[in-house]
Amino acid sequence: MVVCPVSKFGLIMKHHRIRLRGPWQCIIAPSDLAPITQTITVPCLIPEIVEGTSFRIARKLGRPSTLHAEEAVYLVITKPGYAFNVFWNQKEIGITTVDEDFEYPIKELLLERNLLEMEGGATQARAFLFEETFLEIRILPSDTLL
After folding, report:
1. Which of 23, 70, 102, 112 is the most exposed place for a label (fewest CB within 10 A)?
2. How far is CA 65 from CA 18, 56, 83, in A?
3. What confidence tens digit (pLDDT) does each residue in 82-108 have?
4. How far is CA 108 from the centre of its chain?
5. What is the rounded CA–CA span in Å between residue 143 and residue 41?
6. Is residue 10 over pLDDT 80?
7. Does residue 97 lie within any of the structural domains?
8. Which pTM value belongs to this model?
9. CATH code of the domain containing 36
10. How many domains does the chain have?
11. What pLDDT does 4 receive?
12. Nearest to 16 by CA among 5, 25, 26
């Protein structure tokens, strides 16, 4: 029997999202200038990111509390504006494709303190970095728990 998590209101939760809006540390490296470091909240436009600019964004976060065996945790990045190399605790977990949602199972990679990093290069000026980034906790179907 699968025991589903229950919210503080007594409702069964099927999916739970932990949004990662900010703060993000952003390092922009224009080809002809010294690197620019700033703190951002996403989604946002960054005017300093122009064609040919490389950049790296990073966000620290803790481990979600009270994870059950029947739950999976996915990192989800919606509508990335650039192709990013994505790193979880300094391990590369994938590369995003422009305008295609990215997701990766990270439950086995979770530590008490975690670091999410994305790096890429601008192929266009003034695109959003991405629409949204979040951890999604999902209930696994009971047949996957055997």
Report:
1. 112
2. 11, 28, 31
3. 899 999 999 999 999 999 999 999 999
4. 16
5. 39
6. no
7. yes
8. 0.84
9. 2.60.120.260
10. 1
11. 52
12. 5
